[in-house]
């Protein structure tokens, strides 16, 4: 029942990568539990990345996140937080392996296409921030084809 928060950043939306990114999570066997496209305000972006507020790149990061609409999602599955981060790849695309989203689609750390929660606790906080009205309660009929139990 683990959940993670995934956000396709403005560059991923502008470059038409939404479908491919969703497809990777879907094909893996994770279930999409919430999704919306939003243009967030500065104060909201600052809240989302509040842990990084002392970093020298914080201002540039916030400008980047508010530079266009983003696609916010909640994905569910066993180990989805850690596996989601593996699917996304290393923060700096220079270190992201080919086959990962960042490894395949981008070059610069400041244009790295996608966000994924870094721990179960931060996923819970981010899901509450982005989806305050809750997520969709549905059960995939593919479940027994993906999970033994
Ligand atoms: P997120 O999934 O977006 O949280 O990335 P991450 O967990 O892999 O990395 P981290 O939380 O440390 O940094 C958040 C985001 O800040 C990164 O994804 C980058 O978009 C941006 N960022 C990180 N380091 C730099 C940097 O040195 N310069 C700039 N401009 N942006 C950076
Ligand atoms: Mg992070």
Automatic annotation (TrEMBL):
<feature type="binding site">
    <location>
        <position position="102"/>
    </location>
    <ligand>
        <name>ATP</name>
    </ligand>
</feature>
<dbReference type="InterPro" id="IPR036850">
    <property type="entry name" value="NDK-like_dom_sf"/>
</dbReference>
<comment type="similarity">
    <text>Belongs to the NDK family.</text>
</comment>
<feature type="binding site">
    <location>
        <position position="112"/>
    </location>
    <ligand>
        <name>ATP</name>
    </ligand>
</feature>
<protein>
    <recommendedName>
        <fullName>Nucleoside diphosphate kinase</fullName>
        <ecNumber>2.7.4.6</ecNumber>
    </recommendedName>
</protein>
<feature type="binding site">
    <location>
        <position position="85"/>
    </location>
    <ligand>
        <name>ATP</name>
    </ligand>
</feature>
<feature type="binding site">
    <location>
        <position position="9"/>
    </location>
    <ligand>
        <name>ATP</name>
    </ligand>
</feature>
<dbReference type="Pfam" id="PF00334">
    <property type="entry name" value="NDK"/>
</dbReference>
<feature type="binding site">
    <location>
        <position position="91"/>
    </location>
    <ligand>
        <name>ATP</name>
    </ligand>
</feature>
<keyword id="KW-0547">Nucleotide-binding</keyword>
<feature type="domain" description="Nucleoside diphosphate kinase-like">
    <location>
        <begin position="1"/>
        <end position="137"/>
    </location>
</feature>
<keyword id="KW-0808">Transferase</keyword>
<dbReference type="InterPro" id="IPR034907">
    <property type="entry name" value="NDK-like_dom"/>
</dbReference>
<dbReference type="InterPro" id="IPR001564">
    <property type="entry name" value="Nucleoside_diP_kinase"/>
</dbReference>
<keyword id="KW-0418">Kinase</keyword>
<dbReference type="InterPro" id="IPR023005">
    <property type="entry name" value="Nucleoside_diP_kinase_AS"/>
</dbReference>
<feature type="active site" description="Pros-phosphohistidine intermediate">
    <location>
        <position position="115"/>
    </location>
</feature>
<feature type="binding site">
    <location>
        <position position="57"/>
    </location>
    <ligand>
        <name>ATP</name>
    </ligand>
</feature>
<keyword id="KW-0067">ATP-binding</keyword>
């Amino acid at each position: 029942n683990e959940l993670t928060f995934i956000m396709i950043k403005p560059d991923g939306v502008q470059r038409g990568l939404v479908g491919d990114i969703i497809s990777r999570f879907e094909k893996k066997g994770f279930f999409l539990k919430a999704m919306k496209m939003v243009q967030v305000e500065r104060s909201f972006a600052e809240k989302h990345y509040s842990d990084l507020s002392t970093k020298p790149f914080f201002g540039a990061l916030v400008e980047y996140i508010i530079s266009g609409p983003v696609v916010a999602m909640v994905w569910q599955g066993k180990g989805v937080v850690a596996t989601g981060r593996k699917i996304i790849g290393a923060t700096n695309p220079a270190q992201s392996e080919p086959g990962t989203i960042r490894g395949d689609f981008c070059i610069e750390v400041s244009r790295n296409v996608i966000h994924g929660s870094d721990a179960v606790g931060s996923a819970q906080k981010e899901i509450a921030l982005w989806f305050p009205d809750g997520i969709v309660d549905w059960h995939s009929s593919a479940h027994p084809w993906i999970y033994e139990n």
